[in-house]
Design goal:
It contains 16 helices and 30 strands. The strands form five sheets. Strands 1, 2, 5, 6, 7, 8, 9, 10, 11, 12 and 25 form an eleven-stranded mixed sheet that branches. It has a seven-stranded parallel sheet with strand order 19-23-18-15-16-17-24. Strands 14-30-29-28-26-27 form a six-stranded parallel sheet. Helix 3 packs across helix 4, helix 10 packs across helix 11 and helix 13 packs parallel to helix 16.
């Protein structure tokens, strides 16, 4: 019986488990040097949060099977500490891939080195890793590694069952749940709530780990390369730290006086501006370029209408600059009534399930699109920065050896006719320009950051064609379903952030306030841990980063793990009864008081100012 939520580990033989971990800087200690690069010397480093779950679950699987678990990490000498921490937790040994030749590795070069190490010390029955690293947040290495190794892949495992050699998993994807089954060997990445983490954070304890269990491997032992920057198809250009100044103005006086003052500040800062918004730009006219000119391919995700239109509009704009054309590719594009021409596509290519009537899964889509790219040699490929888009694009990049920028927030063409993708990192503290050196340039784009243009009725209908996927995926999709819409949060201009200090019994009142000012709701990790809101509403280090025009923080202390996700908000209003709360460091307007009393008085005034 397939029952992913009931975690069961019942292997029928000893298993060899590999767990891949990454050492990252502690967010609060991050500093940029004069060269725009992150300073690592003297900075506290620790194991990536998601990797801690992989270590814990991988150890559990190995112990239950009577097998072994080995931890792998790629990094400088200091990265040995993550191996030591894992050994203290109970893994059998560590492989530390360490050599100056690995410096400057992007995700492709990292996946290549890790794959070489796994092949040298393998074979392994199960490879586990974190869903992504919370510093760069690309989520590209796991699917790229699976593509290089030729293994099936499941991302964001939230519930884990192993019966014999069959994995039955429930995956956590953005606002979607996916139930899958797959036979070993396989690669999986772990969601935050899969299990309690490996967590031995005391550096003095790390020193007590048995260092003889750790083997250091240099570049020569993994092959001739190239490695590191030389093997990386992307390079980092100028980097800037985004420094956000807040007013930190606390409201005083009677409640009515505080409300008057806050409304005046919000009006002065433009946070309440609700006049007629400028009309969005039209999608550029078709360039008229022949189909023998450079193409820009857009991966179209089923059920993601807005982000697809954002990408098609951006592709049409880029095509106008390079004299090219736009191809939309994806499953379900054979509907004769759904013409993507006005939205920017010159051709829409339906990718079918290889003639068997099924919807192709990520691995098969990547294979089909890679084959198309080998023939068409597009100038660029754009994909949505969702779990689905990341996997397809990452597998494609590994197959093509193409440069891929993850989670881009802006796109432009440089003076040499190359694509520049703007990549944020560390929850938006940094933004870097990323350049691809390969003929096919790729980027996944964060939903909601690009403008949504108006469809252009003057554009001709998109040419129609089809493409069959190979239908070889070993991942069985049992069910997909959504319990929320993360696009709403990404595109909201007003957001109310809810912490565990708000009793769920008061959510109906909160819903009325939300509706009164047209706001969306988001939550801290604790709120989603308790199941009070869907995981798709979580904002922070291991959730979304959002940039609404106006953000309210209620029922929360203001810890960094959440507030880093709203660094780019226009104006932040905080409400908390504790005058010493850390929240006051990141607000523009602060109310020391009960959130319900303040919102009861403030929301009607804001709704009136908005003309609602």
């Amino acid at each position: 019986m397939f029952d992913p939520p009931a975690d069961v580990i019942a292997p029928d033989r000893p298993l060899r488990v590999a767990v891949l971990v990454k050492q990252i800087p502690v967010f609060e200690d991050m500093v940029l040097g004069p060269d725009g690069r992150m300073v690592r010397d003297g900075i506290d480093m620790h194991m990536n949060d998601y990797c801690r779950r992989a270590v814990a679950k991988g150890t559990e699987v190995a112990r239950a099977s009577g097998g072994t678990v080995t931890v792998f990490t790629l990094g400088p000498p200091s990265a040995e500490n993550v191996c030591r921490e894992a050994i203290l937790f109970g893994v059998d040994g560590g492989i530390h891939i360490c050599d100056p030749e690995f410096a400057g590795s992007d995700t492709w070069a990292t996946a290549k080195a890790l794959a070489a190490a796994l092949e040298r010390f393998g074979p392994f029955d199960l490879v586990m890793m974190g869903r992504n690293s919370v510093d760069s947040d690309t989520g590209q290495v796991p699917p790229q590694l699976a593509e290089i190794l030729g293994l099936p892949f499941a991302t964001g495992v939230r519930h884990f069952s192993l019966r014999g050699d069959r994995l039955e998993l429930r995956l956590e994807h953005d606002d979607e749940w996916v139930d899958v089954a797959v036979e070993l060997p396989a690669v999986v990445s772990c969601a935050e709530r899969l299990c309690d983490p490996c967590k031995i954070k005391d550096p003095e304890a790390w020193a007590t780990a048995d260092g003889s269990k750790i083997q250091t491997v240099d570049a020569a032992e993994l092959g001739t390369g190239p490695w590191g920057q030389e093997a990386s198809p992307t390079s980092v250009g100028p980097v800037q730290m985004i420094d956000v100044e807040r007013r930190r103005q606390m409201m005083t006086g009677t409640l009515n006086e505080q409300i008057d003052k806050a409304v005046a500040i919000l009006a002065e800062g433009g946070a309440l501006a609700t006049g007629s918004m400028p009309e969005p730009d039209l999608v550029p006219d078709s360039t008229g370029a022949g189909f023998d000119q450079p193409a820009i391919a857009v991966l179209v995700e089923p059920g993601r209408e807005r982000v697809n239109r954002e990408l098609l509009g951006a592709a049409a704009d880029l095509a106008a600059q390079i004299g090219g054309w736009v191809a939309a590719l994806g499953p379900g594009l054979d509907d004769p009534d759904d013409d993507l021409g006005p939205w920017g596509a010159d051709e829409q290519i339906d990718i079918s399930g290889g003639g068997n009537g099924t919807v192709p899964v990520e691995e098969d889509l990547a294979s089909a699109m890679s084959a198309w790219c080998n023939g068409a040699q597009p100038w660029a490929v754009l994909a949505p920065g969702t779990a689905w888009g990341r996997e397809v694009a990452s597998r494609m990049a590994a197959s093509l050896g193409a440069g891929l920028t993850g989670d881009a927030v802006g796109l432009k063409v440089d003076d040499h006719g190359k694509l520049i993708a703007m990549k944020p990192a560390f929850g938006g503290w940094l933004v870097a320009e990323i350049l691809c050196s390969t003929p096919v340039q790729m980027a996944t784009v964060r939903p909601g950051v690009l403008p949504l243009p108006r469809p252009n009725p003057a554009r001709p209908p998109a040419r129609r064609s089809s493409l069959a996927s190979p239908g070889r995926s070993r991942l069985e999709i049992v069910r997909r379903y959504r319990d929320d819409d993360s696009d709403e949060l990404a595109n909201a201009s007003v957001v109310i952030g809810v912490g565990q200090g708000v009793d769920p019994a008061d959510y109906p009142k909160l819903e009325k306030h939300r509706a009164a000012i047209g706001a969306a709701l988001c939550a801290t990790r604790k709120v989603t841990d308790y199941g009070w809101m869907p995981r798709a509403r979580q904002v922070g280090i291991t959730g979304h980063s959002i940039s609404p025009q106006l953000y309210f923080a209620i029922g929360m202390s203001g810890k960094f793990n959440h507030t880093v996700g709203v660094r780019n908000a226009g104006t932040v209003v905080g409400i908390n009864p504790d005058p010493e709360a850390p929240l006051w460091e990141i607000v523009d307007i602060g109310f020391v008081g009960d959130w319900a009393e303040v919102l009861d008085a403030l929301i009607p005034r804001l709704a009136q100012a908005q003309g609602r």
